[in-house]
Amino acid sequence: MMDWLWIFFLHPVSFYQGAAFPFALLFNYLRTVDSFSTRARYLFLLAGGGVLALAAMGPYALLVVTPALCAVALVCSLGPREVHRLTFGFQMGWQTLCHLGLHYTEYYLQEPPPVGFYVALSSLMLLTQRVTSLSLDIHEGKVEAASGGSGNRSSLSECLRKALPYFSYLLFFPALLGGPLCSFQRFQACVERSSPLQPSVSLRALTWRGLQIVALQWLKVALRTVVSAGAGLDDCQQLECVYVMWSTAGLFKLTYYSHWILDDSLLHAAGFGSEAGQRSGEEEGYIPDGDMWTLETTHRISLFARQWNRSTARWLRRLIFQNSRRWPVLQTFAFSAWWHGLHPGQVFGFLCWSVMVEADYAIHTFASVWISSWSLRLLYRALTWAHTQLLIAYIMLAVEGRSLASLSRLCCSYNSIFPGVYCVLLFLLVKRKQKRN
After folding, report:
1. Nearest residue to 177 (alpha-carbon basis) of 115, 106, 221, 135
2. What is the pTM of this model?
3. What are phi and psi of 136, to 5 degrees?
4. Annotated catalytic, 28?
């Protein structure tokens, strides 16, 4: 029993997320008290974020607080036309420098970075989502610019009053270390909501999420026992490597599912979950990051890409895909590799994923026309489901392995047959289309 407690609940991020639960419940309760003003709520969330950052990251909390301060300064001083371009450039530049520091420590110095540095980088990636989401909202007119477009000088207290909601949004503690992306509109609506008639914390929902986490951890311990008893990717032989890849990727997926449910539970406890209200005019409401049933049953890798870490996928679609004139899929996955840190395995994995998505569109378009028999469709669905799961396992091992040595072992194994099949099919279908045209 202590094994899975150590694996999950004593994991640094999970531990601090769990420690934040009482404060999330306290905030949700105080929000219904009339004497707990809106400004006090923003300050409570901001102070909680500062304390959580110091506890989880130590001195590396400056890597997160500094760009948050700079982002607020840019948002409050720039107009809607230039705010997104300059804010995006600064935030991604800062994040890239931090990732380069990780590269230098891992690959050049051959030293393991401190745990606080890893936690800070993970939090910084989430901060980038909130910063760019806010700047896009201002640029598109969904959120009023703090500068207001007036030339009158405001007092310091007035500037701080305007900046408080933005600063609180960027560092509010329920989403500092994890969780789906929450838009500024939704954040502001949830903070300012105080009516006791609105839905509050559901203990039944929290209990159900807790049971899911426990079940996933038991399953993870069982799978880890099976994986550790067999050969690894270094010493597996021929088709045995396929089983090693699939089972190892299963461990990664179970870890992600557990963390996503925990993050969702913390946001729900604080009143920012799916049960909270949605402000009119917001295009899409809150969605959890993982839909395990869809992810494990889909036979389309393109659908898996849209459903895996859904709030991030939606953010990437808005930020990159919808603004790309040529090769939108490739540009989206390339930016995702940049956002994740540009490790060799990440670059290969995300670019491979983009090619697999393009192949998926071509293959399923062809199959929908030429496969008409019910029995053949059932067989086709079963084969493509298995192939999709193996492709995802291949990509996941490349991304999670990160290093060039790990990537070379994966590429030299029998597992490279699976992306190779889709590459060949994509090539043949493109040639066929060109001949028809």
Report:
1. 115
2. 0.91
3. -65, -40
4. no
Q: How far are the Cα atoms of 12, 32, 343, 347, 396 from residue 399, in angstroms, in the given order?
A: 21, 44, 8, 8, 5
Residue 222: count of CB within 10 angstroms of its CB:
12
- 317-368, pLDDT tens digit by residue? 999 999 998 999 999 999 999 999 999 999 999 999 999 999 999 999 999 8
CA distances, 436 to each of 314, 364, 366, 431 (Å): 35, 18, 13, 9
Contact predicate 170/21, CB 8 Å: no
Nearest residue to 351 via CA among 327, 326, 333, 325: 333
Q: Distance between CA 381 and CA 75 in Å, rounded? A: 49
Is there a contact between 360 and 301 (Cβ–Cβ < 8 Å)?
yes
Choosing from 84, 268, 309, 387, which is the catalytic residue? Answer: 309
Neighbouring CB atoms inside 10 A of 198's CB total 14
Amino acid identity, position 415:
N
Q: CA 303, CA 233: separation in Å to the nearest integer? A: 28
Give per-residue pLDDT as tens, 29-55: 888 877 788 999 999 999 999 999 999
* Calculated CA dihedral for residues 394, 395, 399, 403, nearest 10 degrees: 50
Using the structure block, give the residue that is written with the tokens 């477009």.
149
Query: What separation in angstroms does the CA of 415 have from each of 307, 338, 391?
Result: 24, 25, 9
Residues 6 or more apart whose CB falls under 8 angstroms from that of 102 comprise: 113, 117, 121, 341
162 CB contacts (<8 Å, ≥6 apart)?
76, 146, 154
Using DSSP's 3-state secondary structure scheme, residue 236 falls into: coil
Q: Output the CA–CA distances (angstroms, integers) from residue 241 to 248, 396, 419, in the order listed.
A: 10, 15, 15
Task: Exactly one of 139, 340, 343, 387 is catalytic; name it.
Answer: 340
Active site residue 309: yes
Asked whether the beta carbons of 433 and 358 are under 8 A apart, the reply is: no
The backbone torsions φ and ψ at residue 156, rounded to the nearest 5 degrees and listed phi first, read -60, -40
Query: What count of residues does the chain have?
Result: 437
Relative orientation angle of helices 328-340 and 115-139, to the nearest 10 degrees: 140
CA separation, residue 342 to residues 286, 308, 316, 347, 350 (Å): 29, 20, 16, 6, 10
Burial class (CB in 10 A: 0-12, 13-18, 19+), 381: middle
CB 346 within 8 A of CB 402: yes
